[in-house]
Protein: ABC-type Mn/Zn transport systems, ATPase component
Organism: Pseudonocardia charpentierae
Amino acid sequence: MSERNTVVRSLHDIGLGAWFGGSLAGAVGINGAAADVAEPKERLQVANAGWNRWTPVNLGAIAAHLVGGAGLLYANKGRVASQKGVGTSTVAKLVLTGAALGASAWSRALGAKLDQYDGVPVQGGTDPAPETPAEVASAQRQLKVLQWVIPALTGGIVVLNALHGEQQRPNQQLPGILQGAAQLTGATD
């Protein structure tokens, strides 16, 4: 059996990169550009069109990340169970991934709601105008937060991914495995 996990690692990393980068580009680019449209009644339509084009790509990126992550977890199950610190960082990564999935789903649901309101005047993709209907304004205010929550969560996953890479260094594996075994057997304080 191969010691390499190039395919699943690539799926994991490329999917995460697209998820992080796309959400950040959407917050800055799509939502920001919508505010620059001269006609307030066209701004929401512009933001919705951009996000609707990105959604299938984002879904593919998330799926690739999850498939790759599952493959890496399976390939490294021994290290996760036995190397000190790897299990903890894996749990943290799973929690952040779950939170990012939830935030992405919530964001998409709000976007779908806003799709029904083309022609409503707004200041920008996530900024209501004084005359924006309350239901639209509420969804926009939630999206204004989520547009930064998603890249923050996926960025946290990137950081934990870097930590996992460091934990795979040979000089980290043996001491971590020995410390983990010592804790399991009660040989430490």
